[in-house]
Write a structure and sequence with these properties.
The complex is a heterodimer of chains A (372) and B (329).
Chain A lengths: L1 H16 L3 H16 L10 E7 L4 H12 L3 E7 L2 H9 L5 E5 L3 H6 L4 E8 L3 H29 L7 E9 L7 H31 L1 H6 L5 H30 L8 H25 L3 H18 L11 H7 L3 H15 L7 H21 L5
Parallel strand pairs in A: 1-2, 1-3
Antiparallel strand pairs in A: 3-4
Helix pairs in contact in A: 1-9, 2-7, 2-9, 7-9, 7-10, 7-11, 7-13, 9-10, 10-11, 10-13, 10-14, 13-14
Chain B lengths: L1 H17 L7 E7 L4 H12 L3 E7 L4 H8 L4 E5 L3 H7 L2 E9 L3 H22 L9 E8 L6 H32 L1 H7 L4 H29 L9 H25 L3 H18 L12 H7 L3 H14 L17
Classes of the chains: A alpha/beta (372), B alpha/beta (329).
Chain lengths: 372, 329
């Protein structure tokens, strides 16, 4: 125990002595968390709409006023010329064009099929899908309104209809921040943990101080524990700050148990630190260690389900993801915070993570040799 | 060396296929109070659409919460009792869609897709009768008619990889010389500062440029992302962007005194803003105004605009004036 205490003392001294690292470790994640959480949103706002109305009937006007009333759309212009509208689209000034041709209103009145053209700037595919869905839903609403007035007129001819209603559970206001904040928090903890641990042993190798440790009677497990515990503390500390910010600044209620989050975080951090130490023992220079850590980091993050849902990935992508600790933790922390999942609900993910951490730690311990 | 070239290719291949917002195989549960031929027909239609997988049949409304809490099922469909009878006699029956909205975007899409399928079903059972729905929107997607998310992600990944790799390589290499003490040797040599920096930058410039070529190549041959505009222009802009990233790297290395600091700065300070504030995944215009203003100084933002414009539409020269080609030193 005493030996470990000395190693811990050395590690903490090293961390807190390095004045230029301190703000990077402690301040930067917090700032990034607070600022970037606002950036991660698919909520639609300010879609620039250009309307070409060659019909000028009451129907087209009613639809246009529906779009005007919607908070998602800003109507840039209402005009006659489709040519001008297309030019604007090509210049990237508008996101979508709504085009009513002459005769639209007449067709609606005669109960014939009337069509309205929706032209979308689809360079940004995900945004375009959203514009389109919103525009269609506005038109669909209008259709329903028409439909009900027609249905009363056609009592004799029964039209069968399946109606649907929907409700969004756990997040009825469809806010993004409660969804994104836990994910970004996981990410920041991961980056700090992985990089600090990956650079640590290899740095001692590069500077040559590892030799000094190797000739002391410190045992292997003591050395590794001494390396792990400080980073575990840093990770816990940042997680705590992040949760406090979530609860008090962003007012996200933590539905599940905070202790459960910490239990998961403990196992998760062991996995991440294990990967870091493993990289560290396998490489000779900090540069190498960093590039490898970076490689895994980016893969873990982009495949972790933070920004794009893991369920949308192809089959083999999901298989690879079984090896991705970030994906598990993001999933679990969201389940606990947003849905109040309990221990039994996350048991499967948790046991996989535990198995993972044990495997990777024993690998790392195995690869670290006191003789070179 | 292998890492330098292999990494971007592996990442691009991986992400090109993996990063997508498209709906696919959403796990769905059904709570069917009536279990008649109509409900099973609707369920069949939904499952055969390929967007949804039926994983569970529930018997009780209280199970819904529990199912969602386990985290696998994302949407539950509730059919009212006597669904079929009501449909035939009263000509109206209703189904309720419950979503797990902890992911708001997915929940929205699920509802949209399900409503579309139900709408189709309505049209189908009323075939031959006059259908009350008359306004049919015809959508046309410009520049990316199939709404391939790959078109969107290849430029984004290209910008991210070039930005991070270039900035990291230069910042580390100078910090390393400082840490090992060899920087002193360079400083006392008769080389002028400009020469040292040029010498440091050129090899990485060439490396990154090859990387850019490879990425565009992979995008073109593997994912079929076209290069509609001028290829030479694309490469010139890439060169400019790489130069910018490299200068940023040098700037970082001058303010940091160890490799660790240099790395944390170039990784940590650059990674998330590059991914989040560049419009790579999240559309910029949805962000709050202050963030939109901040995004103006994020170089990848402009680079992504440029590559997208060159790749996906005919070149329009007036767009390229926007490129900020400042060099930080």
């Amino acid at each position: 125990m005493r030996t470990i205490k000395y190693i811990l003392q050395k590690e903490f001294l090293q961390i807190f002595r390095n004045k230029s690292m301190l703000p990077i470790i402690f301040a930067m994640p917090i700032i990034q968390l607070c600022v970037l959480v606002f950036a991660a949103t698919f909520e639609m706002k300010n879609t620039n709409l250009y309307i070409v109305d060659q019909d000028l009937s009451s129907h087209s006007r009613q639809i246009i006023s529906k779009f005007e009333a919607s908070p998602f759309f800003t109507i840039k212009n209402v005009d006659f010329s489709i040519k001008k509208a297309e030019d604007k689209l090509f210049e990237d000034k508008v996101d979508a064009i709504l085009y009513f041709e002459n005769g639209f209103g007449n067709a609606v009145d005669k109960k014939e099929t009337a069509s309205v053209q929706v032209l979308v700037n689809a360079i940004d595919a995900s945004a375009a899908g959203l514009y389109n869905a919103y525009i269609l839903s506005v038109i669909q609403d209008y259709n329903l309104k028409l439909g009900s007035s027609i249905q009363t007129m056609m009592k004799n001819q029964a039209v069968q209809q399946v109606k649907n209603t929907y409700s969004h559970l756990f997040n009825p206001e469809m806010k993004y921040i409660p969804y994104m904040l836990p994910g970004i928090l996981v990410l920041l903890i991961t980056v700090i943990g992985l990089f600090l641990s990956a650079m640590n042993v290899v740095r001692e190798k590069e500077i040559g101080t590892i030799e000094q440790i190797n000739v002391t009677p410190i045992k292997k497990y003591q050395f590794l524990l001494g390396k792990l515990i400080p980073f575990l503390f840093i990770g816990f500390f940042e997680l705590g700050i992040g949760l406090i910010i979530a609860a008090f600044v962003f007012k996200i209620p933590v539905l599940g148990s905070v202790w459960l989050i910490y239990l998961v975080a403990f196992i998760y951090l062991l996995t991440i630190l294990g990967i870091g130490l493993f990289i560290s023992t396998q490489t000779d220079t900090q540069q190498q260690a960093m590039f490898i850590a970076w490689f895994f980091m980016i893969i873990f993050i982009l495949m972790g389900g933070l920004f794009t849902p893991t369920e949308s990935m192809p089959e083999w992508g999901q298989k690879i993801n079984l090896l991705n600790p970030v994906a598990y933790f993001i999933k679990i922390i969201r389940m606990i915070m947003l849905k109040g999942s309990g221990f039994m609900d996350i048991l499967k993910e948790l046991s996989i993570l535990s198995l993972y951490s044990i495997t990777i730690l024993s690998f790392a311990a195995n690869r670290y040799k006191k003789t070179s | 060396m292998l890492i330098l070239f292999g990494m971007p290719i592996v990442q691009l291949l991986l992400f090109g296929f993996v990063i997508t917002n498209d709906l696919k195989d959403v796990k769905m549960a059904v709570l069917d109070h009536s279990k008649d031929e109509y409900t099973s027909e609707i369920i069949n239609k939904i499952v055969s659409s390929g967007y949804f997988n039926l994983v569970e049949n529930l018997d009780n409304i209280t199970q819904v919460d529990e199912t969602f809490r386990k985290g696998e099922t994302k949407v539950v469909l509730v059919f009212e009792p006597d669904f079929g009878k009501k449909l035939i006699k009263g000509s109206q029956a209703s189904v309720q869609i419950l979503t797990d909205a902890s992911d708001p975007n997915m929940a929205n899409m699920e509802v949209n897709y399900l409503q579309g399928i139900l709408q189709n079903y309505n049209v189908e059972i009323n075939r031959g009768k006059q259908v009350p729905n008359q306004i049919i929107p015809q959508t046309r997607m410009y520049f990316n008619s199939k709404l391939e998310s790959v078109y969107m992600f290849v430029p984004g990944i290209m910008a991210t990889i070039l930005m991070l790799v270039s900035a990291m390589m230069t910042s580390i290499s100078i910090a390393r010389e400082k840490e090992l003490g060899t920087m002193e040797i360079l400083l006392v040599s008769p080389l002028r500062p400009l020469q040292i920096i040029l010498g440091k930058v050129t090899p990485y410039l060439i490396l990154s440029f090859i990387n850019a070529l490879v990425i565009v190549g992979v995008g073109y041959f593997v994912f079929g992302v076209p290069v509609l505009g001028s290829f030479a222009l694309l490469m010139t802009e890439s060169l400019l962007f790489i130069l910018l990233a490299l200068s940023l790297g040098i700037y970082i290395s001058t303010v940091s005194n160890s490799q660790q600091v240099a790395m944390m700065l170039s990784m940590f300070a650059l990674m998330l803003p590059t991914i989040l504030l560049s419009g790579f995944i999240f559309p910029l215009r949805n962000m709050p105004l202050p963030l939109q203003i901040i995004s103006n100084i994020i170089p990848p933002r402009w680079f992504i605009v440029i590559i997208k414009n060159i790749m996906l539409r005919e070149p329009a020269w007036n767009l390229f004036g926007k490129k900020p080609s400042f060099s930080l030193e």
